[in-house]
Design a protein that fits this description.
The complex is a heterodimer. By secondary structure, chain A is mainly beta. Helices cover 0% and strands 52% of the residues of chain A. Chain A has no helices and eleven strands. The relative contact order of chain A is 0.34. Chain B is an all-beta fold. Chain B is built from no helices and eleven strands. The chains are: A mainly beta, B mainly beta.
């Protein structure tokens, strides 16, 4: 158990809908990262937050947004869902803002299926 | 961006065999991690190893940063070692870039 929790574990929805994925980092970790794992594109970094502020952005679509709350949990919002958004979404956390000693610990993931 | 190549892409072993997985990367890195993704999809941290050698039970890893590669050794493999092994690197941009993985199947 990495100490990172994600809810829900599974989510099935329809095209055009909006969903929210939730992540709670390990106790004491200030950084939260979101990654997407799809069959065709592998594991890709989406976005990072550190202590409530956005720190780095990867291949995140404009239809997707995220935030980190004062209690440090984070939410990833996916809207106008398309079939291609079906994937496993991981949250990871680390203690610092990023750097040479920054081990990232991954949650169990949320499996999103868009029908 | 940085390129991360893992080899072999697929590996089938008999229980008890040893194996070596390789990760090549195209640029200097601040962070290198090895992960095991089990059949249930969980990503499990194996090593944080931007340089040097580490061992944890039957697993060990070596990173030669100057030559831009890392190796993961699995000894006396067990069926529970099956899954996909990923190498991931960070060049200081705070995001991990993952390789495409090595799919390992250990047969009893």
């Amino acid at each position: 158990d990495s100490g990172v929790t994600q809810t829900p574990k599974h989510l099935i929805t329809a095209t055009g809908q909006r969903v929210t994925l939730r992540c709670s980092p390990r106790s004491g970790d200030l950084s939260v990262y979101w990654y997407q794992q799809s069959l065709d594109q592998g594991l890709q970094f989406l976005i990072q937050y550190y202590n409530g502020e956005e720190r780095a952005k990867g291949n995140i679509l404009e239809r997707f947004s995220a935030q980190q709350f004062p209690d440090l949990h984070s939410e990833l919002n996916l809207s106008s869902l398309e079939l291609g958004d079906s994937a496993l979404y991981f949250c990871a956390s680390s203690s610092s803002a990023g750097g040479s000693t920054d081990t990232q610990y991954f949650g169990p993931g949320t499996r999103l299926t868009v029908l | 961006g940085i390129q991360v190549e893992q080899s072999p892409p697929d590996l089938i072993l008999q229980e008890g065999a040893n194996s070596t997985l390789r990760c090549n990367f195209s640029d200097s890195v601040n962070n290198l991690q090895w992960f095991h993704q089990n059949p249930w999809g969980q990503l499990i941290n194996l090593f944080y190893i931007p340089s040097g050698t580490k061992q944890n039970g039957r697993l060990s890893a070596t990173t030669v940063a100057t030559e831009r590669y890392s190796l993961l050794y699995i000894s006396s493999s067990q069926t529970t070692d099956s899954g996909v092994y990923f190498c991931a690197v960070d060049t200081g941009r705070r995001a991990l870039t993952f390789g495409s993985g090595t799919r390992l199947q250990v047969q009893p």
